[in-house]
Amino acid sequence: MKLLKSSLLGSAAAFAAVGAAHAADLPVKKAVPIEYVRVCGAYGAGFFYIPGTDTCLRISGRARFEGGYMTSYSRQGSNGDTSGYQGRLRINMDARTQTAYGTLRAFVRLDAGSRTGYSGVGTSGTQQRIGQAFPGLGIDQFGRAQQFVNVDKA
């Protein structure tokens, strides 16, 4: 039994030593340096370079959530209320790069919203739209940049 034990321990030690010797012989590959996102200060705050290009990009936006609760005086007991929610989201993407003819720009604003109708009768639903989308070269811009007639405050 002692012979079996010592031979098993000796074999295990030999395998461990051989494994360690082979591990020392493996070539070590140098890590490739990672190109982190660089800040682009040419067009203002919030822009960064897209890795591998000279194009600057800014992604911005906002989110809003509202909840409302109103007790219903016309319903018997605890048969319901007029509670609900409203959520809105806006995402802006602005890409710019310098060319021989001036700054080449592409801008897109996406708007989305959803509500359950607590703010009025028949006002529930969802909305998705492209708020603004335009390319620009130098001082010229083409596309949907703004409303020319403000119908909201008429």
TrEMBL record:
Q: Which GO terms describe its biological process?
A: monoatomic ion transport
Q: Which domain of life is it from?
A: Bacteria
Q: Which UniProt keywords apply?
A: Cell outer membrane, Ion transport, Membrane, Porin, Signal, Transmembrane, Transmembrane beta strand, Transport
What terms describe the molecular function in GO for this protein? porin activity
Keyword field contains Ribonucleoprotein: no
- List GO terms (cellular component aspect): cell outer membrane; pore complex
Report the subcellular localization: Cell outer membrane
Write the protein's name: Porin
Question: Domain annotation text?
Answer: Consists of 16-stranded beta-barrel sheets, with large surface-exposed loops, that form a transmembrane pore at the center of each barrel. The pore is partially ocluded by a peptide loop that folds into the pore lumen.
Identify its protein family. Belongs to the alphaproteobacteria porin family.
Instruction: Just give the chief location class.
Output: membrane
Q: Which InterPro entries match?
A: Porin_alphabac
Keyword Ligase listed? The answer is: no
Report the function annotation for this chain: Forms passive diffusion pores that allow small molecular weight hydrophilic materials across the outer membrane.
| Membrane topology category | Multi-pass membrane protein
Signal sequence extent? 1-23
